[in-house]
Amino acid sequence: MLDIFRGLKSLIKISHIHTDSAVFRLHYSLTVILLIAFSLIVTTRQYVGNPIDCIHSKDLPEDVLNTYCWIHSTYTITAAYRKREGSEVPFPGVDNSKAYPDSERKEYRYYQWVCFMLFLQAILFYTPRWLWKGWEGGKIHALMMDLDIGLCSEVEKKQKKKMLLDYLWENLRFHNWWAYRYYLCEVLALLNVVGQMFLMNRFFDGAFLTFGIDVLRFLESDQEDRVDPMIYVFPRMTKCTFYKYGVSGEVERHDAVCILPLNVVNEKIYVFLWFWFLFLGVLSFFTVLYRILIIFSPRTRVYLLRMRFRLVRRDAVETIVRRSKVGDWFLLYMLGENLDTVIYRDVMHELANKLASRHHHGVPGVKGELQEA
Predict the structure, then answer these.
(1) What is the pLDDT of residues 197-206, one digit of tens each?
(2) Which residues form the domain of 200?
(3) What is this protein's function (predicted)?
(4) Is residue 368 part of a domain?
C-alpha cells in the first residue's frame, strides 16, 4: 500500500510556489491523491482478494457463476435485516427470497463501478485547479524572478526589485479580472464537493447523504435494535439468481449466496469520504464567505496584510489598499506568500511611497478613499 502512495506522490507534485489558498490546495492535492489511491486499492486483489465468491451447486462452473453475479448485480431482502443472525437468517439481508414479494428486494448494482467512480471524483476535484492554472498563466512565478531565496547579489536584487515595482506601478488597478477568476475557482471547488455528496447519494440509491450520521447513531445505540448502515449499504453477503437450461430443455433457477469481500474495504472508504467531504465543504464555505468579505471590505484587506506581513508598515499597507483594487490586493498577498520577507517589505514600502507621492502631486484618476474597493 505504501508503494501506491509513493507512486501517487510523484504523480501529483505540489509546487513550492503558492498561487492559491491552503483550503484550495486540499481539494486538488490531498483529496485527489486519496481518491486515486482508493480507486487503485479496490482494484488490487492483494488487499481485497476476489471481488465476489458465490456458493454454488456442483453442476455450475464457479467462474461462470461468479462472473454472472458480478456483472448482473446481487440483491438482499430488506425485511431480513431485522431478523436474528445465526438463528433466523444466516446473515442480515439473506433469506428465502420466495417468501417475500419483489418489492422487498434491494439490488446492488454499484460495486463493480466503485473504482471508476472514485477516479471520476478525483478528476472533478482537480478541475478547478486545472482552470486556475490556465488562467493564472504563471504570473506569480514570472514576477518572483527568484526573489524568494534572497541570495542574489545586491545589484541583481536591486534590478529585479525595480522590475517588479515597475510592473506593479504600471499595472495597478488592472488585476481584478485575474483575481475574480481565482475566486470563481474557489466557488467551483465548493460546488464540486457539495455536488459530489449528492452524486454519491444517487450512486448509492439515496443512502449516502446521511451515511456518516447513521453510522455514528448505530455505534452509540443498542446494536441489536438497529440495522448496521454499513452492512445495509455495503452488504458482505448477498443473493444471486442464475437461470440456465436443464437437460430436458426447461429453464432451471439456481439461487446462490455470494460473499463480497470488496465491500469491507468500500464501507471504510466511504465512511471516511463522508466525513472528509463534510469537513472540506465547511472549510470551502467559510473560504467563500471570507472572499466576499475581502471584496467588500477594504479595512479587512488592510488588517489581513498587516497580520500576515508584519515587516510592512501600517501606513504603507493603508496607502496601497486605498489606491488599489481587490485584484491588486490579491496579487500582492500572493507575492508576499512567495517572496523573501525583506525584499517584499522593500517593494511594498517603495510602492506606497510612489502612490503617496503621486497623490500629493494631485494626479487625476486616483482617489484616496479607504472605502473604494
Answers:
(1) 999 999 998 8
(2) 1-296
(3) Structural component of the gap junctions.
(4) no
| Assigned C-alpha cell, 288 | 467563500
Residue 78 Cα distances to 74, 157, 221, 372, angstroms: 13, 72, 20, 62
In angstroms, rounded to a whole number, what is the distance separating the alpha carbons of residues 273 and 233?
14
Q: Is 190 helix (H, G, I), strand (E, B) or coil?
A: helix
Tell me the C-alpha distance between 202 and 193, whole Å: 14
Alpha-carbon dihedral sign for residues 56, 205, 218, 222: negative
SS3 string, 282-333, reads HHHHHHHHHHHHHHHCHHHHHHHHHHHCCCCCHHHHHHHHHCCCHHHHHHHH
Q: Is residue 342 part of a domain?
A: no
Q: How far is CA 20 from CA 25, 129, 136, 335, in A?
A: 7, 9, 10, 11
Strand partners, 55: 257
The tally of domains found in the chain comes to 1
Interatomic CA distance for residues 15 and 17, integer angstroms:
5
Element (H, E) at 53: strand 53-55
Q: The C-alpha cell of 83 is what?
A: 431478523
Q: Which three-class secondary structure state does DSSP give residue 237?
A: strand
The Cα diameter of the chain in Å comes to 105
pLDDT in tens, 56-67: 766 778 788 888
pTM of the model: 0.86
Region of poorest pLDDT, from 36-40, 56-60, 264-268: 56-60
Residue found under cell 456483472: 71
Please spell the DSSP secondary structure of 94-158, one letter per residue.
BS-GGGS-GGGEEEE--GGGHHHHHHHHHHHHHHHHHHHHHHHTTHHHHHHTTTTT--S-HHHHH
